[in-house]
Amino acid sequence: MRLDSSRLVLHAHHSLPQVRVHRSPQVCIVLFCLLVVVALEVWLVQKAHSTSIAAAGAITPGFKMLYSIILPTYNERENLPLIVYMLNKTFIEAKVKHEVVVVDDSSPDNTLEVAKSLRDIYGSSQVTIVSRKGKLGLGSAYFAGLEAAKGDRIILMDADLSHHPKFIPQMISVMDQGDRSGRPFDIVSGTRYRRGGGVAGWDFKRKLTSCGANFLATFLLNPGASDLTGSFRLYEREVIERILPKVKSKGYAFQMEILVHSRKEGMTLGEVPITFVDRIYGESKLGANEIILYLKGLLHLFFTT
Fold it and tell me: Buried b vs exposed e over 132-163: b needs ≥16 C-beta within 10 Å?
């Protein structure tokens, strides 16, 4: 017996269950809400991404300038290669031009020879060396470094790894964003004493000394800064050139006096919270003599400014 294939197909078609999709108003509303939620999540992710780029300073004018980082050194042979490497890595990732100016005060541990090796590795356009005869002090080291620097903006920081270069792009961005009027800040200071900042590796005595010195200076001088003794700062070149000749203090009071004169001159200050890390290699320069110099400098500023 022969089967009619067309009849079999027709029979199978009629035997299949008929499925209908019911597009009720409730289903449409749910689908619409899901689409809105997905679109909102995509928008938030894109906004967060663009905000993080802006916060890192990737789109601000300051990222097209040349930055000079002045590193005064005395017995920093272990730390210098690390800080130069970290600076180079940070600036390459941020796509910003920079140079490192090493000012060495005849370090007995041959820091100068290490600096020369780094210049051979990175090139003379990236590492400049200023060698001085004798331990002449921090203030004059900044003067010497500034004379050799070619940058549009100047960064002062320690060479002992206490200041991490990762904060520099944020400092550049904050300087460009400026104050409420939109004017770029003249100085941006890394601060340990604002939310998000802090100190790692200090014992209670060292923390108490630092906090006490900062509180005393803030109370007596009121310079409008949360961290007066910190030395991790970004300056417009013309600002630091104008202020440095006015500074007479030595030691830790030097940084404090810069801010006092800056405020007196009407210059604006921005701040970026940083984490200060105690040195791993070498010995701290803080001693009884430095504390006495700081107190003398503080009293001098209180009575003269």
Answer: beeebbbbebbbbbbeebebebbbbbbbbbbb
